From TrEMBL:
<feature type="transmembrane region" description="Helical">
    <location>
        <begin position="118"/>
        <end position="138"/>
    </location>
</feature>
<keyword id="KW-0472">Membrane</keyword>
<keyword id="KW-0050">Antiport</keyword>
<feature type="transmembrane region" description="Helical">
    <location>
        <begin position="31"/>
        <end position="48"/>
    </location>
</feature>
<feature type="transmembrane region" description="Helical">
    <location>
        <begin position="6"/>
        <end position="24"/>
    </location>
</feature>
<dbReference type="InterPro" id="IPR006153">
    <property type="entry name" value="Cation/H_exchanger_TM"/>
</dbReference>
<keyword id="KW-0813">Transport</keyword>
<dbReference type="InterPro" id="IPR003148">
    <property type="entry name" value="RCK_N"/>
</dbReference>
<feature type="domain" description="RCK N-terminal">
    <location>
        <begin position="401"/>
        <end position="491"/>
    </location>
</feature>
<dbReference type="GO" id="GO:0015297">
    <property type="term" value="F:antiporter activity"/>
</dbReference>
<feature type="transmembrane region" description="Helical">
    <location>
        <begin position="150"/>
        <end position="177"/>
    </location>
</feature>
<feature type="transmembrane region" description="Helical">
    <location>
        <begin position="295"/>
        <end position="318"/>
    </location>
</feature>
<dbReference type="InterPro" id="IPR036291">
    <property type="entry name" value="NAD(P)-bd_dom_sf"/>
</dbReference>
<feature type="transmembrane region" description="Helical">
    <location>
        <begin position="183"/>
        <end position="205"/>
    </location>
</feature>
<dbReference type="GO" id="GO:0005886">
    <property type="term" value="C:plasma membrane"/>
</dbReference>
<keyword id="KW-0406">Ion transport</keyword>
<dbReference type="Pfam" id="PF00999">
    <property type="entry name" value="Na_H_Exchanger"/>
</dbReference>
Amino acid sequence: MLEQITAMLALLGVLSLFCQWIGWKLRLPAILPLLLCGLLLGPGLGFLQPDVIFGDLLFPIISLGVAVILFEGALTLNFKEIKEHGVMVTRLVTLGTVITWACITVGTFYLLDFEWSMALLFGALVVVTGPTVIVPMLRSVRPKTELASILRWEGIVIDPIGALLAVLVFEYIAVAADPTTHVLHALSAMLAVGLGFGVISGYLVGLVLRNNLLPHYLRNTAVLTLMLAVFVGSNLLQEEAGLLSVTVMGIWLANMKGVDIADILEFKETLTVLLISALFILLAARLNADALLSLGWEGLALLAVVMLIARPLSIWCCGIGTSLSKGDKWFLSWVAPRGIVAAAVSSLFAIKLEAIGIKGAELIVPLVFLIIIGTVVIQSLTAGRWAKVLGVTADSSQGLLIFGASKFPRALAKTLQSKGVTVLLADNNWDNVRLARMDSIPVYFGNPASEHAENHMNMAGIGRVLVMSPYRQLNPLVTFYFQDVFGSKKVFGLNNGEISSARHQLSESYLERLSLFGDDVSYSKLASLMAKGATIKSTRLTENFNYAMFMKQYAEAAIPLIYLQEGKVRLISGELEIPIGVELISLIPVDAIKLDCNSDNHPDTGETSSTVIADENLAVSKAPE
């Protein structure tokens, strides 16, 4: 039996990885292949039977997995970020949550004859969307920047809020079901332990992190271990208080001043991907096909309430007084897929509620899965066409993601911003990030090829990637990652010089992309020129002052970078003439600047050629208001 459990855990890991890869390759939410895998192996073939294989271990596995998922979600709930992302996001995660919860609760009560307490629990479970289903959908639909930002941040912020809401409702049901306890007293005790233990543990762990009392290599492991200890300890002090404690602990750490949780969050997200994937296969395999079919027209009617009443009502109420158009609101009204968190939390609660004999508990899981399947499948298939009908798709993505935020990329980004081009910088160096923020340049702190970046980095309006960092080991990773996202012809890098060591040689497919701004332009060359006082200059080329004259004026020392032509952004490299009527952005060395200052007129001779790498059909995107 032990060998069977070991083999099944290994199989779950392999299947989880495969399903995540399928989702990434097909640009689909990973929840779809995970769901199909679980249904095929469980109800379909009968090969995977979690209750039989894991027995008494199944509940602890699901319980600890959900605790990690809720803690990781709570770490993303920074109250400052809610305000930073606009009135609409703030309203959606507050007023919108209440409206959606109320509509689904009423629909569940009348359509499925649930008790009010169970209807409230189900409504709380399915108010959440989540970045794991929203981000892949946005990548394929590509709506306007503002709409993509609203949907992404709603999914990120509402996850812990919805989970906290569901935990509180569940605690009330669990306490009220015990005839030997006084409901108010037991609920107060649970809230006191859950909230108190969560706040105290969050504060103490925050102090440890802020004062660097742990070596760096132990930080992630220590936080995970302490979180699990808090979960178990809270449950020992007061039954069912653990989930509330870890959720509050995560929220406290996310909002505590002076506590850097970036590394911890990235580690937790990596762990959560594996946990979520394996859990979802297990949970789908436990799904009773007969129970799902028994929901009948009532279940489909409830799905209609979720999609056609609750969501539109929430969007239109929250959108009052905002700048959103009718098309924007109708698009937002249609896109709200439910995710894996709802499935994981509902399955855990269902096991506990069935154990204490709560009526309707056996229908919670199939009903949640019906909502997940319905919203993800229907909206994934129709959102793109609906966006085109409403006219809310983004224009051709001309924005640039620049990996590296040192002096030269910051200066280039600032110039491009002034010309209405969407620019996003990303860097692992906090000093560079801080200086970019001081220049009001959008920036992401961390590895742009990470799971955290995929869920949190705003890529709306971004169509190409420029790799201009000094991190030679990380540059190829970022290059190949975004080649898979945008295509190989949309990712460019600087030539960082010859690599003599055979063990450090790079592939030809990577090296051929290292020609940004010219074969002889490297990161070290640009950094050296900027350190000596070089500046980024924007010049209009006309019939009276063409590219040849421009180069002669600066004694052939200027480095042409990018030019803008009729709303198109084009990157320069190689040898092809730059036409007149464009706005040329170039780097002028300090010696050439002095030469220009001493010159009384423009030279009228001289020729230099360059190549343009760009998509001819792309248009410059407007700067966000």
